[in-house]
């Protein structure tokens, strides 16, 4: 357990809060998904109630230590301001230049300031101006950031898998260090699911590649009762069992690994379930994310995919089979869509699974969804409000599911 906001006195203090405002922007620099902004409101609201002066620190994109105007955090303050119903200051420029320091020094209790993209400084990612690794430079930068406030709150769950100036180094220089409410909530849901799950514990894993999720599968083989594997990942597993997979996306260099994982699941008595039928097509337009008008689409009779066809979604029999397991699960962790859900015709399996997870949640199961595409899928299904916890971390929640140490969490002091 980490020290959290309620463990310290923040009344009237100048509080630095690391948030994850790495939000998607369209070509006109308009925010297309504000979930990460919304997720920081409880911490900010609490600090406002305590009359703190709030200095928010964040990154956007990967500007690689250079000022990239298209990666400015400028679009964020107006949206944050709408959520809070009060102004949010933004001076832009450089997060530690004299203007930013002055704005931070002048900030009054009850006011909010967002600093410009931390990653415009190479030191944020532990490098110097020449782009070389430089821990000393990172420390100097972290110290400068820390000096702007009296308390440091880590609430950027999406970034805690990075050992950066504003996630690890800053902790050495800040006077008081605590986790914010978002980090607390993420750790509670993900932590309890993995350490102390109400059983049966079901993990649903999908997405494009087995290679992205090997360590998640390995770790969940020690924890879950059942693992459903869908999405393109399933075809590598099926091919490893000598099932014909046609032109489906298969990672041939991961076939041995798939065999090993299936063997492990048997040893550990974890039910590792693969689709028993599929939606297949002879053509997909991956560039425009659409189904060509003349494409043939059908549901296979069984797990085999004929030559010339590609698996693009789980089939009806698989949905029926998985539905029973989802209904009886008491903890459900879901990461990765079960088909090419961006194309409507191939999204039915994922949407149906999203509805089943929501229904199971209505009936008392604990549900946790992580991963950008899976979150988009529960939204597309219109059931996002019925899921217990939607993680704001992409890479961070995957690394949590892998049981990897998250440096930004390890750096926070434990509760006494
Ligand atoms: N059968 C399939 N064939 C090809 N691609 C597929 C298939 N099933 C799923 N995908 C693709 O997998 C991608 C999502 O995989 P990914 O592992 O990135 O999911 P995620 O973990 O939820 O998202 P993120 O990586 O954004 O956090 C989607 O673009 C989807 O179209
Ligand atoms: O979007 C994310 O996963 C986080 O903001 C971290 O961003 P990064 O992968 O560029 O470090």
Automatic annotation (TrEMBL):
Pathway: Carbohydrate degradation; glycolysis; pyruvate from D-glyceraldehyde 3-phosphate: step 2/5. SUPFAM superfamilies: Phosphoglycerate kinase. Its EC number is 2.7.2.3. Gene3D superfamilies: Phosphoglycerate kinase, N-terminal domain. One of its GO terms (molecular function) is ATP binding. It holds the Pfam family PGK. It is found in: Cytoplasm. (2R)-3-phosphoglycerate binds at residues 36, 119, 162. This is Phosphoglycerate kinase. It comes from Endomicrobium trichonymphae. The lineage of its organism: Bacteria, Pseudomonadati, Elusimicrobiota, Endomicrobiia, Endomicrobiales.
């Amino acid at each position: 357990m980490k020290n959290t906001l309620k463990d310290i006195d923040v009344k009237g203090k100048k509080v630095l809060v690391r948030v994850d405002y790495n939000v998607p922007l369209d070509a006109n620099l308009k925010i297309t998904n504000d979930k990460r902004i919304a997720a920081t409101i409880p911490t900010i609201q609490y600090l406002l109630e305590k009359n703190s002066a709030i200095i928010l620190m964040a990154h956007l994109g990967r500007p690689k230590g250079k000022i990239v105007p298209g990666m400015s955090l400028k679009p964020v303050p107006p949206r944050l301001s709408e959520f809070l119903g009060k102004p949010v200051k933004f001076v832009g420029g450089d997060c530690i230049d004299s203007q930013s320091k002055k704005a931070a020094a002048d900030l009054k209790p009850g006011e909010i300031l967002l600093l410009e993209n931390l990653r415009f400084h190479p030191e944020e990612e532990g490098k110097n101006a020449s782009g070389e690794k430089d821990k000393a430079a990172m420390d100097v930068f972290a110290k400068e950031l820390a000096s702007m406030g009296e308390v440091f709150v880590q609430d950027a769950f999406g970034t805690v898998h990075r050992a950066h100036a504003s996630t690890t180094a800053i902790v050495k220089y800040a006077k008081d260090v605590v986790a914010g409410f978002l980090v607390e909530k993420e750790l509670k849901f993900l932590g309890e699911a993995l350490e102390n799950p109400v059983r049966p514990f079901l993990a649903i894993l999908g997405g494009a590649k087995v290679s992205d999720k090997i360590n998640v599968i390995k770790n969940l083989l020690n924890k879950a009762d059942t693992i459903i594997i869908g999405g393109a990942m399933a075809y590598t597993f099926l091919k490893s069992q000598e099932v014909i997979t046609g032109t489906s996306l298969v990672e041939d260099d991961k076939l041995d690994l798939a065999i090993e994982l299936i063997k492990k699941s048997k040893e550990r008595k974890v039910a590792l379930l693969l689709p028993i039928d599929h939606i297949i097509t002879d053509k997909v337009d991956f560039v425009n994310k659409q189904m060509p008008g003349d494409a043939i689409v059908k549901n296979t009779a069984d797990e085999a995919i004929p030559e010339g066809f590609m698996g693009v979604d789980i089939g009806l029999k698989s949905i029926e089979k998985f539905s029973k397991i989802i209904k009886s699960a008491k903890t459900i962790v879901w990461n990765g869509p079960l088909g090419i859900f961006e194309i409507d015709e191939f999204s039915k399996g994922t949407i149906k699974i999203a509805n089943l997870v929501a229904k199971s949640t209505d009936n008392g199961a604990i549900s946790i969804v992580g991963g950008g595409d899976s979150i988009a899928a529960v939204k597309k299904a219109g059931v996002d409000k019925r899921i217990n916890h939607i993680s704001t971390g992409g890479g961070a929640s995957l690394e949590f599911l892998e049981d990897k140490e998250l440096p930004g969490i390890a750096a926070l002091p434990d509760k006494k």
